[in-house]
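Q: Could you fold this chain for me?
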Amino acid sequence: MATRGVVREWHDDEGWGVVDAPEVPGGCWVSFAHVAVAGYRSLRPGQQVALEWEAGEQDGFGYRARRVWPWEAKPAEPGPPGPGSAYTSTLTIEREESPDPLDPGFP
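A: Sure. Below is the predicted structure, expressed as structure tokens.
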């Protein structure tokens, strides 16, 4: 069961933050991997969220999130990455081959 919390801080550049709720004194550590929203996983300070948590030491906090999502929404279910999902890229490398087998750049 989720409890209502408020995002104290969120670091998009590092992918983590802290949520405060009466059930997690001192705050609950949250990773972007636990944010159950579609698309880019991010929170904003002051945002009300639903929080599922567990007791356990994490970066100086006595609690860590199992799942977090905006209070007014339903949690997004994780799915396989696909076209258009975040963090997808491709790389193509082409090089010219030398016709001379004595050339050090020859494959």
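A (continued): Residues 3-70 form a domain with the OB fold (Dihydrolipoamide Acetyltransferase, E2P) fold (CATH 2.40.50.140).
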